[in-house]
Amino acid sequence: MPGRPARAAKKVAESGVQRCVNSACGATYGLRERIYLCPRCGETLEIECQLPRPKSPDSLRRSWAASANSKLPRDLSGVWRYHAMLPFDEDAPLVTLFEGNTPIFHAPRSAEYCGLSDLRLKHQGYNPTGSFKDTGMAAAMTQAVISGARTAICASTGNTAASLAAYAARARMQAVILLPHGQVSSSKLAQSLDYGALVLEIDGNFDACMRLVQELGDDPSIYVANSINPFRIEGQKTVAFELMEQCLWQVPHHVVVPGGNMGNSTALGKGFQELLDLGLIDRLPRLSVIQAEGAAPVAHLFAKLTPKQRKDFENLPEKLEPVQNPQTLATAIKIGAPVSWKKALRAVLRSGGKVITVSEQEIADAKAMIGRDSIGCEPASATTVAGTKKLVAAGHIGRKDDVIAVLTGHALKDPDYMIRYHEGKLASPAAAGDASGAPKPIAGAFQNAPQRVAATKAAILASLERQR
Ligand code: F0G
Description:
Elements: E1 16-20, E2 28-30, E3 45-49, H1 57-69, E4 104-106, H2 108-114, E5 120-123, H3 133-146, E6 151-155, H4 159-170, E7 174-180, H5 186-194, E8 198-202, H6 206-216, E9 222-224, H7 230-246, E10 254-258, H8 263-277, E11 286-292, H9 297-304, H10 307-311, H11 341-351, E12 355-358, H12 360-372, H13 379-393, E13 403-407, H14 415-422, E14 427-428, E15 440-441, H15 457-467
Parallel strand pairs: 5-13, 6-7, 6-9, 7-8, 10-11, 10-13, 11-12
Antiparallel strand pairs: 1-2, 1-3, 4-5, 14-15
Helix pairs in contact: 3-4, 3-7, 4-5, 7-8, 8-11, 12-13
Ligand F0G binds next to helix 4, helix 8 and helix 13.
């Protein structure tokens, strides 16, 4: 039941399959099988569920519009009100913290900064644990309950951890979290501790944690909650449905997202594709993914693709060259070997989007600009505005195009970064190959350091005057 911890393991709908994304393999498996990679070829899996067959696209739109006004517990979740699009039975024991239903803001200052006449920001940081992970976690934890799992595990740069910790607690399941020691913001770490997860700090980076999770996932008692789990993607794809409803079904020209492990871009791509398949939209928005310069394996691959490969996206290169020692202050996306790269790259190419990089300076200034729009976000999310600015300058995004950038995490996820930026103390990590190894100071264009003033009216008025 929505809003309550689910107790019993129940049956899962068999109205779908898990399909290997490697087109040369294409093996299918039942939804009940607890697997994360294709046992036959090792590729990632994708869920193919039977989509509803509405009388007309309008009838489905109308039923969703009605659910948005419903007070039924299931409809209060921005994931579960799209239940018909998800691989779960009517009586599935839905786990929810009332995720989704996140706002879209107009961001006039950021628009001007990017050279656009308008820019909208869909803020996934307004989810229960402050990041976009919650929509996917609602689905993954529901599936974990159905499969009878007692322990759920994830590798994380912090947000998946906080989300898993919260949703596992709601489902009365043990949560085990593998974090790269010393590389996670204190806010995210604090959340996981507070929700009662077992937090294991690993001597190694995110990619090392992710490898360990994949090994541990072989143990039948352990349920993997990273986005390698295709049920996570199912929950996250609902963001595309919600976004289109909020846009009154006018397809934006571009949707821009950050890229780390590439689950988010995979999920949005799948969501838009399903809307297209159902005739609810008549074209795909161009989906572009932005990576931080020091952690950009997919952008590197994208830049090397030939025009033929960009069109033939079913036959992408077999392997991605990982970044061995990824570096960025946007710690959420400090990832060198993303697990969902192929699914994400396919979605980008199918839509006519791009995968590009932005520098630490560009991320930091874009983030401050989003703050000036009274919106705010965590550093990884600001890659989207930094990337949009670059894509406008390069002519890929037209100045009058309708653009939605997806902000993935709340500003308070990383207050330390914000304070260091505004006090002029932020320094980007040394780039790979930089022999000096010295961090490079970031001179924030929109710095706003706190000022120490004497406790007098005159001193305060003088400060005010200086800022006017
Ligand atoms: N933005 C934020 C705030 C994130 O936390 C992440 C990923 C991303 C963007 C990238 O999304 O991985 O789906 O491409 N965070 C993961 C974590 C890795 O462990 O919290 P992605």
